[in-house]
């Protein structure tokens, strides 16, 4: 990580988009965003769970990710303004937290519960100011 720190690409205010790999904990949470494409793949794996409750909640999470990507596309095409994007993204974030907490509290879904816990732990990073 020192290579990045000393590079001309590094700026104290830069936002680094990463997966949840622990090596990236080097970066401060406020400068780090969890990649939504990676989260989307995690949600897709939940959809294929043997546990019906996890499967249903995984579908809801996948739908949230799909909505967020569509929202970003609409923003980039100037179909919506930043205010509407931000307002709707906050609602999606709230739904994401709710569904992940539901999975986390399922006693019979240990693996999915662990995934949900890890995503929730990094949740503040998944909603940083820019979406990539």
List keywords for this structure.
single chain; 132 residues; mainly alpha; two-stranded parallel ribbon; 6 helices; 2 strands; Transposase_IS66_central; Initiation-control protein YabA
General description of the model:
This protein has a two-stranded parallel sheet with strand order 1-2. Helix 2 (36-47) packs antiparallel against helix 3 (52-76). Helices cover 61% and strands 5% of the residues. The protein has 6 helices and 2 strands, in the order αββααααα. It has helices at 2-5, 36-47, 52-76, 82-104, 110-121, 123-126, and strands at 16-18, 32-34. The two termini are 21 Å apart. Residues 14-109 form the Transposase IS66 central domain. This is Initiation-control protein YabA.
Distance between the termini: 21 Å
**How are the strands of the largest sheet arranged?**
1-2
Going by helix content, strand content and strand pairing, the class is mainly alpha
Q: What Rg is obtained from the alpha carbons, in whole angstroms?
A: 16 Å
Please state the average pLDDT score.
85
The low-pLDDT segments are none
- What percent of residues adopt helix (DSSP H or I)? 55-70%
Secondary-structure element string? HEEHHHHH
């Amino acid at each position: 990580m020192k290579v990045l720190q000393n590079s001309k690409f590094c700026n104290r205010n830069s936002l680094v988009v990463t997966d949840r790999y622990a090596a990236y904990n080097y970066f401060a949470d406020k400068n780090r965003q969890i990649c939504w494409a990676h989260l989307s793949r995690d949600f897709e794996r939940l959809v294929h769970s043997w546990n019906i409750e996890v499967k249903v909640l995984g579908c809801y999470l996948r739908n949230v990710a799909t909505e967020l990507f569509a929202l970003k596309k609409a923003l980039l095409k100037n179909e919506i303004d930043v205010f509407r994007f931000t307002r709707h993204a906050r609602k999606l974030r709230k739904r994401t937290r709710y569904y992940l907490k539901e999975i986390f509290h399922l006693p019979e879904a240990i693996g999915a519960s662990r995934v949900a816990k890890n995503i929730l732990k990094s949740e503040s990073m998944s909603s940083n100011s820019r979406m990539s």
